[in-house]
């Protein structure tokens, strides 16, 4: 008789569970969602920047073949008198426009912050110049500063003053361009300052009034120091925009052969870049001017950061040290006064 061993009722099968998807596969939808931005940035942002560095080392007219010249473009740039004239014009226009613009914007923002009626209307009115076409604004101001039929000269002659050649004299040209820039951007900066003012607690102003501080002291001792980060932001952005002025001078003097006006008094760095690259077809030299402008913007941004922003920790430490010195001096003075008073009383008793 043959005995057969029975098989178990259930046979354990081999585990065949699927492997979890990799981390890149899981994140693919997110990468696909943000990919269009990076693709467009690589094509229209990163590639032009890298290509401008490349062509700055070449002599190229935009159509023919490139010729490697190394650092000759930058060497010629340092000795180019027109480039240094453009830098001087740009810096003068920047100072004439940025300093009055930021001061006026701060005053306007303080007035809007304290206004009780028509506050929204004034905000919109001051911001409208920023959204107006810069070409249209420049054409209007060109008629205002016109030498022969300008409204400004008509006003000066009506009050008994002489006519000023605004668009032919070097300083008149710079003042005209700076006025256009100031009028366009003062409202924008005022709205930013107003947002910063609204973030300051009202308890600070109430405490200052209780201590007997005047309006001028409140403005310079409380408002301006607490707006330091906002002022730093507007100073840096105004520096970047002021060193890139182009449209105002380009539209004000429409002559292609004389893009900066009489004597190139209104030729800015960007205007000279435009003239070199797109009029004289010297794209390599134009790229070199662009990178010199980039270095100049970085330099002046750092200067603004050091002058206005500085290091908060160092500034706080200096204030604490000065406060401690004042307290120690006050304590010494009080102790000396008490000692003198005690000596005087002892002498009187004697």
Automatic annotation (TrEMBL):
It holds the Pfam family BPD_transp_1. The keyword Cell membrane applies. Residues 341-350 have a biased composition (Basic and acidic residues). PROSITE patterns: ABC_TM1. GO terms for cellular component: plasma membrane. SUPFAM superfamilies: MetI-like. It is found in: Cell membrane. Belongs to the binding-protein-dependent transport system permease family. This is Sugar ABC transporter permease.
